[in-house]
# Entry
Amino acid sequence: MQITHCPNCQTAFKVREEHLRAANGWVRCGKCQNVFEAHLYFAQTTDLNEAAFVSQAGNNSMDAVRPGFFSDDATLQKQMPAGAGWFWPFLSVLLALGMLWQAVLLNRHWLVAQEPALRRTVETLCLPIACKLEWPQEPTGVLIENSSFSENPDGSFNLQMRFKNTKHHPVATPSLEVSLTDVHDQVVVRRILLVQDLNLLDHIAALRDLRVQLSFEVEAPLRERVAGYRAVIFYP
# Structure
């Protein structure tokens, strides 16, 4: 049996050789739970009386050193390479960066619209998953203003309106659904017009508007029934 000292709290206690062999020489202090190699802190001959005194005076700390004290985690502590304490903090930082990257990509359209200077950075972050960067779609942020509807002498119809962006950042230009209706508000002709059909820019600048002008040609039997229209903007 040997007497060793905890280097952390200086508690002295006895250790048995069979326990040391079972744990490869590693022990855990029953008072402060510090793990250390027992043989590095064996009491010298001149310290035995003092150690014995500490053993008598600090019996509670000594009793805390149970056989289970030489557990598998002490062996694991021995097997863990020196300096491996950086692993968990590094993993935590890596996970935090991953979550931040995901949040940026999920909100990339809005971020670039708010801060155009971030476009190149966000495009670089998109490269690993080949995601696209587009203008944000704001269904409630675009309004139809100042629309007018008229019939031409040749029997075609003209529709003029303005798309108004009410947001403080650019938004994607919406598509348009136009329905020509009869006197009973029943649909006679319906047209779906995408941005390319409207010949418009793919976005509307912050607090700006886009003018839309359309011309419809309707077959004669249906033309006579047309009395009005409905227009709805949407994102496909």
In short: The CA atoms of residues 167 and 206 lie 6 Å apart.
